[in-house]
Amino acid sequence: VQLVESGGELVQAGGSLRLSCAASGRTFGNMAWFRQAPGKEREFVANVNWGGSRTSYADSVKGRFTISRDNAKNTMYLQMNNLKPEDTAVYYCAARMEYGGAWVSNYDYWGQGTQVTVSS
User: Fold this and answer.
1) What distances in angstroms separate CA 52 from CA 42, 58, 69, one per listed residue?
2) Can you tell me the distance from the alpha carbon of 107 to that of 120, in angstroms, rounded to the nearest whole number?
3) How far apart are CA 53 and CA 18, in angstroms?
């Protein structure tokens, strides 16, 4: 099983980015994005169930970020709009079989992360 993130880069405040997470080896009932800023703990961003019909978001990103997945490609996405400097972090893809979970300990599989930097 492998999760590979891509799409992170340097962007100005107010800009947009789309992150991707390509999964291989199996399909997952639940996939999620977490992020970790320097000196801070890893925090939940959003998750999505297998069919894409159920999603949840951290309050800090509601209305700005959208999570989705394409099961034909076994890929998950995070569309990030109106980015703020406080969104700067390494973004991680995570997966588990059951839907739900906003804690790091809920997830069995992790990617290596992709860096998102938002300049003011």
Assistant:
1) 24, 17, 6
2) 33
3) 20
